[in-house]
Amino acid sequence: MGDEGTSGMKITDEFKQTLARIREVLDSGGEWSIFNSVPAGVHRRPELDAPEEYLDFLSAADGAVMGSVVILDRKFAERSQALISPGMVKVPEDPGDWFVVGKVNENPVLANRRDGSIWTYPDMLTSWWESRRFERVADSLAEFVSEYGLGPGYLRITGAEESDQ
């Protein structure tokens, strides 16, 4: 697979260091560790038919829970691909072009296998399988995590209250 010309961020060394710093803070205890986790990455590259960037992410963190924004670990990712089986959910192209990388609340987050872009069902008032909206939210997984898991887009994408820390 490799780089197919994605314009967004990539899983860089700087991004991996950010995840490591967050892991240290969470491992030190405190209230942040209750609803968040960034486990250590996998040592061996998983035998998983997944986008390259997601496999790179797994080397930095085997999944991540950032409140209501979750990037699946390798075991859940394998099982979650059934969510995009024909007839299960509407995606704009062939279900084989998509890979479930996570969720926001209960809405799946999918990576487009062709360009690495990240898509989800942003309507928080409708069950995702009934949603008429399926939208591109980031150019890459790293951009999605930075903007919505760790950044200013969290409240917007989760529909959380302004007081949510």
Give me a quick take on this structure.
The protein is α+β, with helices and mostly antiparallel strands and 165 residues long. It has one domain (13-158): SMI1/KNR4-like (3-Layer(aba) Sandwich), CATH 3.40.1580.
Structural summary, described in words:
- The longest helix is centred in the N-terminal third of the chain and has 15 residues.
- It contains five helices and seven strands.
- The protein has a single domain, classed as SMI1/KNR4-like.
- The termini are far apart.
- Helices cover 27% and strands 17% of the residues.
- It has a seven-stranded antiparallel sheet with strand order 1-2-3-4-5-6-7.
- The chain has 165 residues and is an alpha+beta fold.
Provide key terms for this protein:
alpha+beta; single chain; 7 strands; disordered N terminus; 165 residues; 7-stranded antiparallel sheet; SMI1/KNR4-like
Termini distance?
A: 38 Å
Number of helical elements: 5
As a percent range, the share of strand residues is 15-25%
Q: Low-confidence stretches at least 5 residues in length (pLDDT < 50)? A: 1-7
Number of strands: 7
> Which sequence of strands runs across the widest sheet?
1-2-3-4-5-6-7
Kindly provide the name of the CATH class. Answer: Alpha Beta
**Structural class by secondary-structure content:** alpha+beta
Percentage of residues assigned to helices: 25-40%
Order of helices and strands: HEHEEHEEEEHH
Radius of gyration: 15 Å
In CATH terms, what is the architecture? 3-Layer(aba) Sandwich
Instruction: Give a short account of the largest sheet.
Output: 7 strands, antiparallel
How many structural units, i.e. domains?
A: 1
pLDDT averaged over residues: 84
Q: Which descriptor suits the 3D outline?
A: globular
Briefly note the CATH topology name. SMI1/KNR4-like
